[in-house]
Amino acid sequence: MRNETIAVQGGYEVDPTTKSAAVPIYQTVAYEFDSAEHGAALFNLEVEGYRYTRISNPTNVVLERRVTALEGGLEALSVSTGQAALHFAVLNLTSSGTNIISVPQLYGTTHTLFAHILPKLGILVRFAGSDQASDIEKLIDAQTRAVFCESVGNPAGNICDVEALAKVAHKHGVPLIVDNTVATPILLRPIEYGADIVLHSLTKFMGGHGTTMGGIIVDGGNFPWEEHAARFPMFSEPDASYHDLVYTTHFGKAAYIARCRSVYQRAMGSVLAPLSAFLLLQGIETVAVRIDRHVENARRTAQFLRADPRVEWVNYVGFADNPYHQLAQKYLGGRACSLLTFGIRGGFEAATRFYDALQLFRRLVNLGDAKSLACHPASTTHRQMSPEEQRQAGVSAELIRLSIGIEHVDDIIADLDQALSAAVGMRAR
Ligand SMILES: *Cc1c(COP(=O)(O)O)cnc(C)c1O
Questions:
Q1: Which residues on neighbouring strands pair with residue 126, listed in sequence order?
Q2: How far is the CA of 21 from the centre of ligand 1 (A)?
Q3: CA-closest residue to ligand 1 atom 7
Q4: Which residues line ligand 1 (CB under 6 A)?
């Protein structure tokens, strides 16, 4: 099936007991055992079934299957937020004394996790000088356990050459982890280009309505853990925390997600509430339709901004002279995400005046809502960074990030027009 169909129907077979057409919300913590023997078999992973919602829940499993299918993966684990997905995805591959290599253009809190929190656990994150595969490769050594990128950087808007990054990672025997939050599988399926692990903040375009937090980790099932057992002994050696289970023996190609669930989700607990899984599934049903509208509205908005003398620059990969335009042709099917940034004439002061004058755009730190949203990273998401770190992350003082919603495009443009006038004190023409 194609993604437009999977988004609506994927991962759910009508409940045999009730014939419920909608995905039921299994609002339960635990599941009864038929007997002591049945309970033991479940704990030994000898039979399939549910034990406790922190480990898995049938509503969450529908979400996991649907996103797995959308990404063309093998298996997934849903978690409470995108940040939990990032944290578990990295912990599952690393230990104290090892490192991962990351592109520099990252979501602000991901940068905080990588630069300040993981290092306290002895896991070092080396930031490459750019998103070029050659800059990544320079930093890989014997202690490297993964390469990390955002397929479309938030808020930098850069598009990573996923195929080239996967090639470099695989040459050195490590997987590529891709945060696909901004692109969504509607615009890009990174596993098709060699990515091994794809993760999402479902909070954004996937849920799509700014109501529900969630995250997910999807494994493509292609990385040969046993072949690289010296780097990744956790998958092919007995796990003392789970009565000596060997993940590659028991779960084969699905070892990565099985360990993530049995070790990190079970013991550290960032479970997604079943009600949230249900709400996210409602959002995902319309993701393909919404993305079409988001993309078209963003294209019209970018053209308006570019033609406006009050605007200094517009960063939008849909323009032929954008440095990432070619990569957008290859990876986004010639489309461009509805996240765009621009700089207003007049620097930081004008940017804050513009921001304060917005009426239709919501002033907040979120993206991927049906509503149009605006964010000023230098005063919010990226304010904890040094100026040099901001520069590397692609953030400047006058930069405004817009997440273009699905309202009528004329209303979107009218709001930008009046806010620009209020900020710069002149009319467009
Ligand atoms: C928002 C976001 C996250 C974090 O997700 P939460 O659900 O807010 O925890 C991670 N990566 C990217 C690219 C994001 O935009």
A1: 101
A2: 31
A3: 82
A4: 81-83, 107, 109-110, 150, 154, 179, 181-182, 201, 203-204, 213, 215
**Going along 110-230, which residue ranges are E strands?**
124-127, 144-150, 176-179, 197-201, 215-219
DSSP 425: S
What is the pairing mode between strands 339-344 and 311-315?
antiparallel
pLDDT, tens only, 154-211 = 988 999 999 999 999 999 999 999 999 999 999 999 999 999 999 999 999 999 999 9
Distance 157 CA to ligand 1 centre (A): 14
- Domains contained in the chain, CATH given: 56-283 (3.40.640.10), 288-424 (3.90.1150.10)
Q: Is-above-0.90 flag for pTM? A: yes
- Specify the residue with its C-alpha closest to ligand 1, atom 6: 82
Q: How far apart are CA 154 and CA 140, in angstroms?
A: 24
Q: Which atom from ligand 1 is nearest to the alpha carbon of 368?
A: 15
Q: For a pocket test of ligand 1, which of 105, 204, 209, 364 has the largest count of ligand atoms closer than 8 A to its C-beta?
A: 204
pLDDT in tens, 365-421: 899 999 999 998 888 877 877 888 887 777 888 899 999 999 999 999 999 999 999
- Hunting for tokens 């919501």 — which residue is that? 362
| Residue 407: count of CB within 10 angstroms of its CB | 16
